Amino acid sequence: MAFDSRLPAAYQEEGPVVTRIGTDHLVTFDYAEPSPIMLFFQRWWRRSILMLKVGVVVGAVLAYPVMTVMSHRIDDSDVLLATSQNWSSPEAGVAINKIARELEGTGWAGDRASWHPQARLTAMPAWQKATTDALAEHTRLLAVMSPVNGEPDADLTAAARLLHGMPGDDMRPRLTSAAEALNRFDTRAARGLAIQPDRLELLKAEARQFAGWAETDLTDLSTQINRDVVEWPASRTDIIAFYGAKARAHVAREMLMATERSEPRLGRTPDVQAAMTRAKEAWGRAARMKPLIVSNQPGDGMLMANHLASMGFFLAEAKIASLALADALDAAPGEDLESVASLAPDLVATAP
Question: Residue 165: which residues within 8 A CB-CB, separation 6 or more?
Fold first, then answer.
């Protein structure tokens, strides 16, 4: 051909001669069998790969719900103020400790991105929001009863404003600033630069405020219990109402506990001490409710309880006990309450 001269020499050389081998030269293996050991390992390998694939799929499906459950944490244990911290205002100490618990625990659920497992929770966000709202109302009461030149204390007013969350704002910086404002008030009180209310007068105002919380929560719980259509076992609104009431009950109990520890005059009058004990126990029963799954089913149901009705019963008792405490403080003779300071000066309230 005309182009053969342009091919390399290797392409023009003839290759080796191919010899066809007949079937007579082949060896048959009709009776050959695979090794049982190899078959075992082959089956084991295939099953292992299958189980690995299934495990990856199941793990991917269950990982998000598991992380959601693990991120749920409600700390309703007692707030114990360390004696080394030397709080001049026990109420400020309780509020700061409650804020620290929520920020340093699993974090503030409302600040999470929409994809975060904690953003899927219902109970914990309701608990946290109700906690800060209750602390804000209590701090505002304390500010009004600690006036400076006829105006509510500035630090306490700022703390109350910051504790009330604003839609769209991250709560961590707000709560951190609120804790700093509460700490400034406590520091000023320790130096005699802030006016603190009489503790017994503050306790009377607190008791009436807590009774108001119970009344509001009773109304909300009653609305959810008496709905015509009830979801099983409870709706999202039911859960929010339950944990909101639980959070306010915990704040009320901890404030009563702080007052009792810092005010020795309460033990001077048996009626006041008994009323204080009943109020603490009533609020404690509401604060310690820990249902595995909140249920708002009919009270005569065979299996599921009505936790909202149980919470309402405890709150009704707490309301009565709080009003009884305020009445007992009003009825207590002033000279009996004031005589402790003159009889035992070393018993004057000191910060824990």
Answer: 110, 129, 132, 171, 174
